[in-house]
Amino acid sequence: MTTSQAPLIPAPGDTRRRPLVVMRSVSKMFSSGTLALSDMSLTVEPGEFVSLLGPSGCGKSTALRIIAGLGDTTTGTIDWPSSRINSKGLPEGDISFVFQEPTLMPWQTVFGNVYLPLKLRGVSKSAARDEIMETLETVGLKDFAGAYPRELSGGMKMRVSIARALATKPKLLLMDEPFAALDEITRQKLNDDVLRLWRETGITVIFVTHSVFESAYLSNRIVVMKARPGRVHADFPLVTSLGRDAHYRTSEEYRQACEKVSNMLLEAIGGEEH
Ligand SMILES: Nc1ncnc2c1ncn2[C@@H]1O[C@H](COP(=O)(O)OP(=O)(O)OP(=O)(O)O)[C@@H](O)[C@H]1O
After folding, report:
1. CB of 33 closer than 6 A to ligand 1?
2. Is 32 in the pocket of ligand 1 (CB under 6 A)?
């Protein structure tokens, strides 16, 4: 992957807000010959909540993994204009990833699982304690710090996974279908949790989902992708005059947002070559 380094501090008089991440004409061909992404460009501003939506196999996870540095581009670049870049071309400590599976260590408590990324940075347990307890409180798990993953429900495990991702206070949270395996009510609760965290922390979120309803509820911007090869089909803001809450879920505004996203998705699927 190629990256370019930008000065961390803007030049005097430069009052422009720098994008957080810029994906420029990225293509990805796997060694199997599959062209997963073709000429994909995407600029994400600080504080955005962007959902990546599209048919199965259109390259959503591939795009997310490339942004996270978990995969290389074949051509194209990923730039981090507002971050300090490490030797791997990544903004040190600025990115966290939440996968569909909570991927917790079964032999560690909730506290131990959330402590892991801080431990890897050399932070002692005692120095990390207060912050970890605060993060656990944010996700509603303060009373479960000593519990083991086997004692938790699916939704609680996902909360631990989110707490672990937040422990390092990243600027960017990448979420790859995190709630797909959960029941609808748990999913809605976690949607509200993520929205609250997003509002409270000002974190930037890129959220991969198959769900029109979920994307229309959560995002202030939707990027619909097309498959074979994966590329951006539509990219639009989702502005609402209402708060995103139970009232919004039953509002005409939400219905219209779902209809718009759904139509864009149908358009993207309709354009596929079968
Ligand atoms: N490691 C890999 N090796 C070869 N091909 C891969 C690999 N990972 C993904 N692909 C292929 O790349 C394409 C995009 O896959 P990707 O998982 O990014 O899509 P997706 O939109 O996230 O799919 P889904 O919604 O089903 O999770 C698919 O055709 C997939 O088979």
Report:
1. no
2. yes
- 26 with 79, same domain: the answer is yes
Beta pairing partners, 232: 225
Does residue 68 surpass a pLDDT of 80?
Answer: yes
Instruction: Find out whether 238 and 228 touch, Cβ atoms under 8 Å.
Output: no
**pTM to 2 decimals?**
0.90
- Indicate which atom in ligand 1 lies nearest the CA of residue 71: 1
Report the residue among 26, 34, 65 best suited for mutation to probe ligand 1: largest number of ligand atoms under 8 A from its CB.
Answer: 34
Query: CB of 88 within 8 A of CB of 163?
Result: no
| 8-53 pLDDT, tens digit each | 444 444 445 789 999 999 999 999 999 999 999 999 999 999 999 9
**191 and 164 in one domain?**
no
Pocket test for ligand 1, best of 58, 67, 72, 73 (most atoms within 8 A of CB): 58
Residues paired with residue 221 on neighbouring β-strands, in sequence order = 50, 237
Look at residues 122, 140, 169 and tell me which one is the last residue of a structural domain.
169
The count of domains in the chain is: 2
Interface confidence, given as ipTM, is 0.97
Secondary structure letter of residue 91 according to DSSP:
B
